Amino acid sequence: MYKIAVLPGDGIGPEIVPEAVKVLEVVGRRTGIEFQFTEALVGGAAIDARGQALPPETLDLCRQSDAVLLGAVGGPKWDALPPEERPETAALLPLRKELGLYANLRPAYLFEPLAEASPLKREIVAGTDLIIVRELTGGLYFGPKKREKAGAGEVAYDTMLYSTAEIERIARLAFEIASSRRCHLTSVDKANVLTSSRLWRDTVDGLKGEFPEVTLEHMYVDNCAMQLVRRPAQFDVIVTENTFGDILSDQASVLTGSIGMLPSASIGGQVALYEPVHGSAPDIAGQQKANPLATILSAAMMLKYSFKMDQAAAAVEAAVGRVLAKGYRTADIYVPGTSLVGTAEMGALVRREL
Amino acid sequence: MYKIAVLPGDGIGPEIVPEAVKVLEVVGRRTGIEFQFTEALVGGAAIDARGQALPPETLDLCRQSDAVLLGAVGGPKWDALPPEERPETAALLPLRKELGLYANLRPAYLFEPLAEASPLKREIVAGTDLIIVRELTGGLYFGPKKREKAGAGEVAYDTMLYSTAEIERIARLAFEIASSRRCHLTSVDKANVLTSSRLWRDTVDGLKGEFPEVTLEHMYVDNCAMQLVRRPAQFDVIVTENTFGDILSDQASVLTGSIGMLPSASIGGQVALYEPVHGSAPDIAGQQKANPLATILSAAMMLKYSFKMDQAAAAVEAAVGRVLAKGYRTADIYVPGTSLVGTAEMGALVRREL
Ligand SMILES: CC(C)[C@H](C(=O)O)[C@@H](O)C(=O)O
Ligand SMILES: CC(C)[C@H](C(=O)O)[C@@H](O)C(=O)O
């Protein structure tokens, strides 16, 4: 029996999350494994109900669960708050830190039937299938920071800080993932300028010997931002610092034109967290228009990374593939000639293919 | 009389820089203004000849000049050096710091006849005409940094540090540039996470009242990396921190498919520096294949920003436009049906159109 904390959050969250839960229920019935789901508040919904984006009872529930499934948080209702108190920041950052989720895995791959939707030309985006491994509990986000008066004005700083141990654990994970894929790892840094990047590079180099099957390449972050647009198919696994990973993974997520299709996993602690890459899309919330596939694919990542149910994960991914191949589309990926379906209908189609 | 320091550098530098110099000579003859050019060593060439990427006599020459024209630095010959000693880093960073060049201006615009070469679909890239104003002497590049033993391993850090005054001067410049263009300024930060970004945002907001004609928008850096790919034409002027600007400007430079066409200016001190965005392209060096247009357009930026010769700058840009419209192309922007020309030939064509 696995306990799953379910945090629908805001906007389209409460519409897409139930579709993924129902997919997991089908998987449970097929495999004879029981999943026990418990819901809790997070984000704007939690601010409204409890005055806090991450109430202690939600954090407790996550800690006592085997995995967390999150929808999305945030919306215009809370945009008047200072940036650091908005649902995204005030819920996600402490959740990651408290659960020790030091690795954020963000695949970006081209679903062939959706190539039309990419901003890139077909020949450029063809074959894109990469995964970004972003360090998630260190670096510029969590190093010492301060703002203070200085003379007539102020000064403020943040610190990009890493220890050998922090770099080693994320790099080892990235090597392992590369080893299970096409065996090509790109470590992204700014070692020509940053001291922390030099420690990063040396530490990554130090692990190379343990993974002789993996080809390791170092790339500067500015060059990586160029290469992702010019030739995204050159990448297999990318590993990088927290802030660099934030930027590059968002960039990567739009290349294939199907951000509504992209899942993510935040792992490394006792409990891992799974959520779609897209946001809470308040403009279409409550209209059954949202695409539940990224959340369903996040549930597939849960099966793989938290429960080692690789076969079940692959079955869910294959079901999604078949639904797309049959021409079913939610509004975000619709093109003329395909069949437009709503959120619940798309979920049902995937379950039928399972 | 204006004194111009000419630093050809490495790779294709010595081929492209003379073409821009000759364009400036034509402008000089037409306008009756004398330009005096003095060459100096920089980058790998300087390492080889003097043992230093930025010899003191080169720096002195720059200081005594009215503007600096730089080709490109670096190449495989020096890649065995540690990253921080390679020509790019060891020449460019101290040059910027010593000359007080706190603002790097990098336009990215679509040359209509070249849309074919963009990795983006035509309808996505259409209308792209933006300029990134990158802070260049502060932020993560220049804040306190250290690497030291800690327990069994090491720790290392860099500091993203800004004062109100540093932010104010770059923001004011960006407002002014926006005001002379389409009056839309996007300030890019990560204010939901970074303390330095909050000071950045507050300081930019503080200047808003002085530029009522400019619409100011704040955008998170991860979102900006997405938007640059999805809808680059939405941007006019982007202002941002040093590292963010490094990443975003390189990303932006490949969107239009014509990095060989993009100039840059680094300004803010007594003397400004102009250089093409592309690198030293060692693979085609010495073959008369390089595109001199980015360097020629950098010279046009020099006319505009250093010498206030706006009309002459516009004339150079127009001449480049006419040469392209007539179908002349260097190898990097060649497509079937156009006329392939070499470096010197392209330079001569521009001068003929002047
Ligand atoms: C909301 C924000 C704090 C978060 C981040 O920057 O990590 C988001 O952008 C993400 O990538 O998950
Ligand atoms: C070579 C390097 C130090 C430099 C930078 O990062 O500033 C380069 O990438 C640039 O953008 O001009």
Automatic annotation (TrEMBL), chains A, B:
It is an enzyme of class 1 (oxidoreductase). One of its GO terms (molecular function) is 3-isopropylmalate dehydrogenase activity. One of its GO terms (cellular component) is cytosol. Its EC number is 1.1.1.85. Mg(2+) binds at residues 222, 246, 250. One of its GO terms (biological process) is L-leucine biosynthetic process. Pathway: Amino-acid biosynthesis; L-leucine biosynthesis; L-leucine from 3-methyl-2-oxobutanoate: step 3/4. Residues 3-350 form the Isopropylmalate dehydrogenase-like domain. The record marks 141, 190 as: Important for catalysis. It is found in: Cytoplasm. Its cofactor is Mg(2+); Mn(2+). SUPFAM superfamilies: Isocitrate/Isopropylmalate dehydrogenase-like. This is 3-isopropylmalate dehydrogenase. The lineage of its organism: Bacteria, Bacillati, Bacillota, Clostridia, Neomoorellales. The gene is leuB_1.
